Amino acid sequence: MQDLPNLFLVGPMGAGKSTIGRLLAAELSRDFVDSDHEIQARCGADIPWIFDVEGEAGFREREQQMVDELTQRQGVVLATGGGAVMRETNRRALRERGTVIYLYTTVEQQLKRTAKDRNRPLLQGGNPEEILRAMFAKRDPLYRATADLIVRTDRRGPRSVVGEIVRRVSRLVDPLQCKA
Ligand SMILES: Nc1ncnc2c1ncn2[C@@H]1O[C@H](COP(=O)(O)OP(=O)(O)OP(=O)(O)O)[C@@H](O)[C@H]1O
Ligand SMILES: O=C(O)C1=C[C@@H](O)[C@@H](O)[C@H](O)C1
Ligand SMILES: [Mg+2]
After folding, report:
1. Nearest to 15 by CA among 163, 130, 132, 122
2. 176 CA → ligand 3 middle, Å
3. By alpha-carbon position, which residue is closest to atom 8 of ligand 2?
4. Does ligand 1 lie within 6 Å of residue 146's CB atom?
5. Which residue range forms the structural domain that includes residue 39?
6. Closest residue CA from atom 7 of ligand 2
7. 82 and 57 in contact (C-beta within 8 Å)?
8. Which residue among 18, 24, 32, 89 has the highest number of C-beta atoms inside a 10 angstrom radius?
């Protein structure tokens, strides 16, 4: 599937953007890039540390620069951070430079998938369920407004989600799928 556009994954913490993105890129023989990982690699610091030193505002500036840079690559699968859609500039870059896939999941699944991980500063120091519900209310409309496709990840494993994405994206690119 050489004609596929860039594929950009958006969605909340624990939706599976990093996990599914990596598998999807391997399946399509594409490069995989992960905005959170790239920011951490360039700073030599993990996300909680960046939040401690620069605050969320500093992290969001770095994220905007990274989204701008990574969306200009060709032939990539990109996992964005869960909050990237909060900025209009990021939403525009994503929409204009590739096909955007919203990985949807429920707050119940997010809680299970993020419970043991301390690398998400916005979930520390409060009730994670309340935080995730408030984020969902604010962000779900933005994920939907940015996305070309919405794919549920709460009821099936990562490999099955990858299969669905490949099928649905190839239909978007070539709606009739006629045999030669
Ligand atoms: N479809 C799935 N079914 C079951 N578990 C999943 C699924 N997708 C991801 N997971 C698990 O959920 C956890 C979080 O996934 P992942 O780190 O890929 O989420 P993310 O969307 O990248 O989150 P963040 O925005 O915080 O980076 C991982 O342990 C992963 O193995
Ligand atoms: O949902 C969010 O705002 C975040 C999600 C993660 O991917 C990281 O980008 C960071 O922890 C913030
Ligand atoms: Mg991730």
Report:
1. 132
2. 33
3. 81
4. no
5. 7-173
6. 81
7. no
8. 24
